[in-house]
Design brief:
The complex is a heterodimer of chains A (114) and B (118).
Chain A (H helix, E strand, L loop, with lengths): L2 E4 L3 E5 L4 E3 L1 E4 L4 E8 L5 E7 L5 E3 L5 E5 L4 E6 L8 E9 L7 E2 L3 E6 L1
Parallel strand pairs in A: 2-12
Antiparallel strand pairs in A: 1-4, 3-9, 5-6, 5-10, 7-8, 8-9, 10-11, 10-12
Chain B lengths: L4 E3 L2 E4 L5 E6 L6 E7 L6 E7 L2 E4 L8 E4 L6 E5 L8 E8 L12 E2 L3 E5 L1
Parallel strand pairs in B: 2-11
Antiparallel strand pairs in B: 1-3, 3-8, 4-5, 4-9, 5-6, 7-8, 9-10, 9-11
Classes of the chains: A mainly beta (114), B mainly beta (118).
């Protein structure tokens, strides 16, 4: 079985500052890792994913994440945030292979202020 | 191309009443998922369909929840009777197997139905 822990429930940050949203996972098998963003009253949108290969993954909107197998982490980073990045961010894991469901963390609320 | 469509977007009902949610996946997507998202939590899988077959319904509370995906396209999730604790957002997602060495299905999510049970 897999599980996901998002270490921060809320992250306040000023515009143009860097940000890191932390995610740790637990699994006894190979996994795929994902970050999703959810804007108010909208569905989830995929930011980026790690399936295999390079441990540094780049996604949309300037976000990137690094897979660290030894620390079982998949932290999300952005060097300079904008007001429009204010949203809920979810880390998710699935077993490696097609069709398996996603296991989500509880989410991190990123609040960007000017 | 249209995304995953869900209706209604919002629903308010009295407890013990029945309620139904509808989902139309992206055209050509054979896998359909229903997730439950409680306030302040991440989504949790309720049921997954491969075409018209429910292949994972282990988390669906079968005493009051039911789902169907006739003809392997759109799907309906029903609650009867609804309880106060069912107030949540119900998300539908769909996916299609990608080709290549890594077998992976990217899930596309609809906007969800926000249910309030009074």
């Amino acid at each position: 079985a897999q599980s996901v822990t998002q270490l921060d429930s809320q992250v306040p940050v000023f515009e143009e500052a860097p940000v890191e949203l932390r995610c740790n996972y637990s699994s006894s098998v190979s996994v795929y890792l994902f970050w999703y963003v959810q804007y108010p009253n909208q569905g989830l949108q995929l930011l980026l994913k790690y399936l295999s290969g390079s441990t540094l993954v780049k996604g949309i909107n300037g976000f990137e994440a690094e897979f660290n197998k030894s620390q079982t982490s998949f932290h999300l980073r952005k060097p300079s945030v904008h007001i429009s990045d204010t949203a809920e961010y979810f880390c998710a894991v699935s077993g490696a292979g097609a069709g398996t469901a996603l296991i989500f963390g509880k989410g991190t609320t990123l609040s960007v202020s000017s | 191309e249209a995304g995953v469509v869900q209706s209604p977007r919002y629903k308010i009902i009295e407890k013990k009443q029945p309620v139904a949610f509808w989902c139309n996946p992206i055209s050509g997507h054979n896998t359909l998922y229903w997730y439950l998202q409680n306030l302040g939590q991440g989504p949790e899988l309720l049921i997954r369909y491969e075409n018209e077959e429910a292949v994972d319904d282990s988390q669906l509370p079968k005493d009051r929840f039911s789902a169907e995906r006739l003809k392997g396209v759109d799907s309906t999730l029903k609650i009867q009777p609804a309880e106060l604790g069912d107030s949540a957002v119900y998300l539908c997602a769909s996916s299609q197997r990608t080709s290549g060495r890594l077998s992976y299905n990217e899930q596309f999510f609809g906007p969800g139905t926000r249910l309030t049970v009074l």
